Here is the input.
Amino acid sequence: MTIDQYNFNGKKAIVRVDFNVPLDENGKITDDTRIRGALPTLKKILADGGSLIIMSHMGKPKGKVNPKLSLSQIKDTVGKYLNTEVEFAEDCAKAAEQAKNLKPGGVLLLENLRFHPEEEGKPVGIDKEDPAYDAAKKEMKERQKEFAKTLASYADVYVNDAFGTAHRRHASTAVIADYFDQDDKMLGYLMEKEVKAVDNILSDIKRPFTAIMGGSKVSTKIGIIENLMDKVDNLILCGGMTYTFAKAQGGNVGKSICENDKLDLALDIIKKAKEKGVNLVLGTDCVAADDFSNDANTMVVSCMDIPAEWEGLDAGPETRKAFANAIKDAKTILWNGPAGVFEFDNFTAGSRAIADAIVEATEKGAFSLVGGGDSVACINKFGLADKVSYVSTGGGALLEAIEGKELPGIAAIRGSKK
Ligand code: AMP
Here is the structure.
């Protein structure tokens, strides 16, 4: 079933969204992108004559009530965008009466799902090493099913539009789907768009395909790097990873971020790239700083020869050119992770060179996907988000999808491929 095929007239729809928006110290939303992202789905349901039960998590309350993470703080913004009054359920597990009384066109927002440990389904207050852990986990899984069943009981139809949490098997993202017939559960518009963007990268590859992986560490990206090695023509590895590679090849990296226990892994990646005929592009020069701050003194040095008290915080001019060359003629592009400490204005040049080359390639017809928290912040900082083909809302979910893993949130609706 697709959301477009479904007529929500007279139906109560429970919709899992990702309203995990950033708030300031006064509880004011500082970026409502995620709320706006879910609007097409929510509006379609209301326009059909259905009613909405909206559920989301916010932050990491770890199974306990935490007023700072209450979704009541976003109720008015949701109401403003939907142009209607929004009712609030102070306990998501005790909203049966309010759900029952919803009229067509009515909107009920449930309190933060993660105030209940059952949402994540992980036992709380017990260590994994504890001999009683397995029993506690089993018990929690049962409680999770009950919790999901309660949520499901509020509605006739379930829609999952929360791509950011689709890689988690939580009560509201996956388990709940078991309590709906195949015809009464579906992905929302945002999810459909995300899945299509990933499909474009995984199955419909137009060549050359250039992937750019940045960020701080090799260790958190190794799964996707290995997976991409079988698919890409050019692989740019940048950001903090640069220095693990430089050190592995005998370089002096000074105080640069470096994973000393991943040197063999770095050499292995270089070897695999050669074997598979992948053009691996690593930083050759960098902008080194004498302090981890925006106002530090800087100099351009070879990544292999960084003075002892200095650290590489951005890609150097030669490297930026090499990155741009590997990107600008590509037909498929994936970018995850910045090429430097882009949060400091003086160390954005590497990421900017990447973003500009992606925009250039996109203008020439490439499909470009930018995803993962920091690269999205980066492309937004440059004001170029609408000049790439697709900006994903998913961080971990996007990477897992591209690694080829089945996302529980999607499998729960479409059925497992395994
Ligand atoms: P990740 O969460 O692994 O994607 O890493 C993103 C972070 O990596 C950003 O906050 C960047 O500031 C940081 N980063 C990028 N390049 C460097 C670098 N050369 N040294 C330290 N941190 C970096």
Remarks:
- DSSP finds 14 helices and 15 strands in the chain.
